[in-house]
C-alpha cells in the first residue's frame, strides 16, 4: 500500500505540503500512521505539478526512497504550484521495481495514483485487461496493477466520463478481482477525484484550498476521514463531495 496526496489552492512551494508538515508525505514514506499493508514506502516516489498557462503537468519520479533523492528536496524548495499530486510507493509483491512503476502516471493533462493491489495480477486481472484495446495495454508505463488501473481510467476519461464517474466505474469493474484494494487518486489541476476502497483516505478543505490524502499530514482538526466505499469529487468552487460507491 502506498501513500498519496493531491493539493489544489493558492500556489505554494511543494515542500510546504509534502515535507514541511510534521507528518508529510516524506515522513509517511518511512513512518505511515494509517497504512495497513506494507510498512515502509521506499520503492519509489513521484510528484507531478501544474505550472500557470500549461495544462500538461511536469513530473519528477524516482525508483528509491524519497529522502534519498536530492532533486526532490530542491524542487520542493523552488517549485511553487497551485495544483499537484504526489505519491510514495511500497511495491506489491510480484510487481516490478523501477521509476516507470512509480506514480503519478500521466496522460495529457491528467495525473493518477493508486494505493492498493489487484491480487493475482496479472492472471487474476485478465478479464479487466480484456476490456482495453491492445494498443493501450502495450502503452502501459510498467506491467503493474496500478498501470492497468490507470489505463482503464484514462480510457473512460477519453470517452468523456467525468473524473469521479471514471474513478467509480473502474473501482466497480476492478472490485470483481477478489481482494482488490482500490484507492485511486486523479487530478487535472482543477479538480480531484478519489476513491476510498480498501485503504485510508482523508481530506481537508478551506476557503481557498483542498487536500486529499491517504492520511492527514498534521493534527489540524479540519481533516475529515472518508468512509471506506466512497468516491470523492473536489474542486475549489464546490469543496468536497463524497458519494457511496
Ligand atoms: N500495487 C501497486 C504497486 O505495486 C501499488 C502499491 C501500493 O499501494 N502499495 O505499485
Automatic annotation (TrEMBL):
Spell out where the chain crosses the membrane: none
Q: Which PANTHER family match?
A: GAMMA-GLUTAMYL-HERCYNYLCYSTEINE SULFOXIDE HYDROLASE, GLUTAMINE AMIDOTRANSFERASE DUG3-RELATED
Q: Which residues form the signal peptide?
A: none
What are the protein's UniProt keywords? Glutamine amidotransferase, Hydrolase
Q: What is its biological role?
A: Catalyzes the hydrolysis of the gamma-glutamyl amide bond of hercynyl-gamma-L-glutamyl-L-cysteine sulfoxide to produce hercynylcysteine sulfoxide, a step in the biosynthesis pathway of ergothioneine.
UniProt enzyme class: hydrolase
Recorded hits in Pfam families, A to Z, give: GATase_4 (PF13230)
Record's catalysed reaction(s):
gamma-L-glutamyl-hercynylcysteine S-oxide + H2O = S-(hercyn-2-yl)-L-cysteine S-oxide + L-glutamate
Q: Does the keyword Hydrolase apply?
A: yes
Q: What is this protein's name?
A: Gamma-glutamyl-hercynylcysteine sulfoxide hydrolase
- Lineage, top-rank taxon, reads Bacteria
> Which pathway is this protein assigned to?
Amino-acid biosynthesis; ergothioneine biosynthesis
Q: Where is the Glutamine amidotransferase type-2 domain?
A: 2-245
Q: Which organism is it from?
A: Spongisporangium articulatum
Keyword Methyltransferase appears in the UniProt entry: no
> What are its E.C. numbers?
3.5.1.118
InterPro entries under this entry?
EgtC, EgtC-like, EgtC_Actinobacteria, Gamma-glu_amide_hydrolase, GATase_2_dom, Ntn_hydrolases_N
